[in-house]
Amino acid sequence: MAEKGYFVWYELMTSDMKAAEAFYTKVVGWDAADAGMPEVGMDYTLFSAGAGPVAGLMILPDEAKAMGTPPCWTGYIGVPNVDEATKAVVGKGGKTYREPMDIPGVGRFSVVSDPYGAAFCLFTPLPGQDWEPPAPATPGYFGWHELYSNDGPKAFDFYREMFGWELSSDFDMGPMGKYKIFKIDDRDFGGIMTKPAEMPMAAWNFYINVPAIDAAIARINDGGGRIVNGPMEVPGGSWIVQATDPQGAFFSLVAPVR
């Protein structure tokens, strides 16, 4: 399903891998294991939920630190051909931060940004390693994808043209403008908006499914994280909370009940 433009992988770059592992296994309920990739010459941890891995954990690279990148979550969008997609992003006004390269035994990826400042990765799996989206609200999986852009309407057009995402609905947020919900194969997967002025930079934000919000908030606080916004009920009846982990990475949780 990579050709559909789904987010197929998520990665946390952090300043303290052991501390981040302890925090997310406690808060989300993930299992964690070393990826066993000595040939790549780096430590990489896999977070798993249920049937298999859902996200990766690595140390924040020196080149990212040099660019002023803080600990953060990044999403990988599946495409049929990383090299062609990377050129297409640049052709539409985006940037390339890391040229396409192979991950032995896994696939090929690049690091790019859209024309309005938000970074993400492109990924093509090796043949036979296709991906299917999990059922909605499956605990431990990512249930929503939210873009805070420097120009929400134009960013929506970029992703629609790049990946075939379709407009599901517009949600009017008053002075903050329109929240554009996008769908893939008639299923809502996220929203795109113009970022608030107080937000320092454009970025993608990812919501992890948990069974209940209040209990998860207690785990965040117990684990040394900080609640930034929420809990808040959103249209449709789900509950969300936005937070930072102890190393400062921004993340969000979504649950069917409070």
The number of helical segments is 5
Could you spell the SSE succession in H and E letters? Answer: EHEEEHEHEEEEHEEEEHEEE
Inertia-based shape: globular
Q: Widest sheet: strand order?
A: 2-3-4-1-5-8-7-6
- Percentage of β-strand residues: 35-45%
Let me know the average pLDDT: 92
Tell me the layout of helices and strands.
Blueprint (H helix, E strand, L loop, with lengths): L6 E8 L2 H11 L3 E4 L10 E5 L2 E8 L2 H5 L5 E7 L3 H10 L3 E9 L3 E7 L5 E7 L16 E8 L2 H12 L2 E7 L5 E7 L2 E8 L8 E7 L3 H10 L3 E8 L5 E6 L5 E6 L3
Parallel strand pairs: 1-4, 5-8, 9-12, 13-16
Antiparallel strand pairs: 1-5, 2-3, 3-4, 6-7, 7-8, 9-13, 10-11, 11-12, 14-15, 15-16
Pfam families: Glyoxalase
Protein name: VOC domain-containing protein
In short:
With 258 residues, the protein is an alpha+beta fold. It is 19% helix and 43% strand. Residues 6-125, 141-256 form the VOC domain.
Structure explained in plain terms:
- The chain is of the alpha+beta class and 258 residues long.
- It has a domain at 6-125: 2,3-Dihydroxybiphenyl 1,2-Dioxygenase, domain 1 (Roll), CATH 3.10.180.10.
- It has helices at residues 17-27, 62-66, 82-91, 152-163, 213-222, and strands spanning 7-14, 31-34, 45-49, 52-59, 72-78, 95-103, 107-113, 119-125, 142-149, 166-172, 178-184, 187-194, 203-209, 226-233, 239-244, 250-255.
- The protein has an eight-stranded mixed sheet with strand order 2-3-4-1-5-8-7-6. Strands 10-11-12-9-13-16-15-14 form an eight-stranded mixed sheet, covered by helices on one side.
- A hairpin with a 5-residue loop joins β10 (166-172) and β11 (178-184).
- The longest helix has 12 residues, at 152-163.
- The mean pLDDT is 92.
